[in-house]
Design a protein that fits this description.
The structure is a single chain. By secondary structure, the chain is of the alpha/beta class. The chain folds into two domains: about 1-25 and about 110-200, P-loop containing nucleotide triphosphate hydrolases (Rossmann fold, 3-Layer(aba) Sandwich); about 35-100, no CATH class. It has helices at about 15-25, 30-40, 45-55, 65-75, 80-105, 140-150, 155-160, 165-170, 185-195; strands spanning about 1-5, 25-30, 110-115, 130-135, 175-180. It has a five-stranded parallel β-sheet, sandwiched between helices. The model has no long low-confidence stretch (mean pLDDT about 95).
Length: about 200
Amino acid sequence: MKTIGITGGAGAGKTEVLSYIEKKCRCRVLLADSAAHAVEAPGQPCHARLTALLGPEAVGADGFLDKKKMAARIFADDALRKQVNDIVHPAVKRYILSEIETERRAGRIDAFFVEAALLIEDGYGELLDELWYIYAGPEVRRRRLAQKRGYPAERIDGIFASQLSEERFFACCKTVIDNSGELSDTYRQIDGILKEAGLYR
């Protein structure tokens, strides 16, 4: 079973690429956001630590942490954001590695894909077999973020400033999928990559 990390800048189209890969490959896809939701659930160690750090007002009526309230707090306070990340990121990594090991033992799939914006920064290049970069030009990404998510230009500028440079992505990833143009072109690239890797079905 191959382990593959999928990364790329905001608006690059990682979700669309993974949706297609799931149809063409005997695989499992795990999103880092889903892993974070699991480790932050009530009863999990992260939940108690985050509640102690952020206060009970950060917990919603359903017992789960309120993501909007958390985001408003941590993005206004760099020191607090680091504290939250220091709690969540190691727990997410442990969760992902545990899920990979479970699938490896089960022997049901040919590939395990992990999607996260911070795969490179969080050291997944040393934990996974390879990293794939979903590329789209800056103007394409800006247009998608504005049209699909309704982000204003200032927010997009902030997101771009916080992410790795294209050069760093290219240097760290074995495979690049250019998702700047028509989806049919993206799909052709994916088909070729999966066939070359022996993962296409």
